[in-house]
Design brief:
- It is a single chain.
- It contains four helices and 22 strands.
- It is of the alpha+beta class and 457 residues long.
- It has two domains: 96 residues; 318 residues, Glycosyl hydrolase domain, family 43 (Tachylectin-2, Chain A, 5 Propeller), CATH 2.115.10.20.
- Helix 1 packs antiparallel against helix 3.
- The termini are far apart.
Length: 457
């Protein structure tokens, strides 16, 4: 018997419902506050018998109402839980059949070109409900962030007119902050109009960041054309720095002096042409566990992908990507970053989501090729890992961003392990004011600011 396949629109709707239903459900009406009992009222108010006669039926009616409200709320909670269970079960069975058809819309071999046809993206993981937050340090509390003003802003030079700075990667090296980021600009010297490329800047103290000059990477002949979404890390076994970014497919360069933007080798691809890929792979991020180097990325389709190679074979030998975590564009959109939480055996992935403005959700796993679970209290636009709902601004700084978009957490170490100190959280992010957030995405005037996590009461 042929198993019926759900329409794509229904599957997408159900998946979105399963992932956001608990967060967007209207708040339950509060039960009416109980009045004091009759004996307390008689003592406190010195009631007459006539007044007691009048009050008694009111108290009886309220007692009955309280009981009815409690019963109704219990039934509503049970119905909601049952609905969520059924939705999740439906997705985990029916959507796996449907996903094959969705994936067939076009594997772009090697990331961006190639024939269309079915794409094998591995066995599909289940969609998980949020789990209780048992993380250490500041991660284990409701996160509160305080933002600086804009620290890295568009600065033109003799040939470049830049509209936005975004997608930063950051390392602290030899007493300086080294930042590479995406820039959207026009280069009059090369007749390049509204292009995505990258910039570099360096400074010793955050107060100096707004004055740091930008070096435009397309000044280097090896870095012309479409290049964006960088990540930089030190690969310990080879004693080399790696600089990775998308071209559309992911590429890498190496250097021993990462603060010099002209020291990087010519970009080389990670994947061979024809490697099965989702429709639009973006925002590649790398992390190692001592045995394997993992590449994570999103696919502009609500899914989070994984590939890996051995330490010995890195940067070559990456496996065909598979789906590491499923979602929708409203929950797993882009700009994912994965870290090892210091002092634990847990890994943390933060992924940008779409809601009432862009924000970050958090997921945890016990191993890099394991199942990812959303973290309770960091899984919705109202309770994000980082978003408009949990950021404020430093004294004297006018609120300048209504969202937290593509950024990178400051790591304790610069190496491939991506170790994150849960007691010292800083997040370099791209932000934009609500009034500015309209028109062509590339030209939106994004700037970079720094979030610092603070203890919440």
């Amino acid at each position: 018997m042929t198993q019926p396949v759900l329409p794509r629109t229904l599957v997408a709707t159900l998946l979105a419902a399963a992932l956001v239903f608990p967060a967007v459900l209207p708040a339950q009406p509060a039960a009416p506050a109980a009045l004091p009992d009759l004996a307390t009222l008689k003592t406190a108010l010195t009631l007459t018998e006539a007044q007691v006669t009048q009050i008694t039926p009111i108290l009886d009616a309220q007692t009955k109402a309280l009981a009815e409200v409690t019963t109704a709320q219990t039934k509503a909670d049970a119905a909601r839980n049952d609905a969520n269970t059924k939705i999740t079960a439906l997705l985990n069975d029916a959507q796996k059949t449907q996903f094959a058809a969705l994936g067939a819309r076009g594997g772009r071999g090697g990331g961006g070109r190639g024939g269309r046809g079915p794409v094998d993206l591995g066995p599909l993981p289940d969609v998980h409900a949020a789990i209780p937050n048992t993380l250490p340090g500041l991660l284990g509390k409701p996160l509160k962030w305080v933002s600086t003003g804009p620290l890295v802003v568009p600065i033109n030079d003799a040939t470049h007119t830049v509209q936005s700075i975004k997608d930063p990667t950051i390392s602290f090296i030899d007493g300086k902050w080294e930042i590479y980021a995406t820039a959207h600009f026009t280069n009059r010297a090369t007749n390049t109009v509204n292009a995505f490329n990258m910039v570099h800047l360096s400074f010793a103290d955050w107060k100096d960041a707004p004055k740091a000059p930008l070096y435009y990477m397309d000044n280097n002949p090896n870095f012309t054309g479409y290049k964006c979404a960088p990540e930089m890390f030190y690969f310990t076994p080879q004693k080399k720095w790696y600089f990775t970014f998308q071209t559309q497919p992911p590429v890498f360069c190496t250097s021993t002096t990462p603060g010099d933007p002209n020291s990087w080798t010519k970009p080389e691809p990670f994947f061979a042409q024809g490697t099965p890929m989702p429709n639009l792979p973006i925002d590649f991020h790398f992390i190692g566990d001592g045995q394997y180097m993992y590449m994570f990325f999103t696919g502009d389709d609500g899914n989070f992908y994984r590939s890996r190679t051995t330490y010995a074979d890195f940067p070559k030998g990456f496996s065909n990507p598979v789906v590491a975590m499923r979602g929708t564009r409203n929950t797993v959109f882009e700009a994912g970053y994965t870290y090892k939480i210091k002092g634990t055996d847990k890994y943390l992935t933060c992924v940008e989501a779409l809601g009432a403005g862009r924000y970050y959700r958090a997921y945890v796993a016990d191993k890099l090729d394991g199942e990812w679970y959303p973290v309770e209290g960091m899984e919705s636009v109202d309770r994000p890992f980082a978003g408009k709902a949990n950021i404020s601004f430093e004294p004297g700084v006018e609120p300048w961003s209504g969202q937290v978009s593509h950024g990178e957490l400051v790591r304790e170490t610069n190496d491939e392990r991506m170790v994150l100190d849960p007691n010292n959280l800083m997040f370099l992010y791209q932000g934009i004011g609500d009034a500015e957030n309209k028109g062509d995405y590339g030209a939106l005037p994004y700037k970079l600011g720094l979030l610092r996590a603070v203890k919440s009461n």
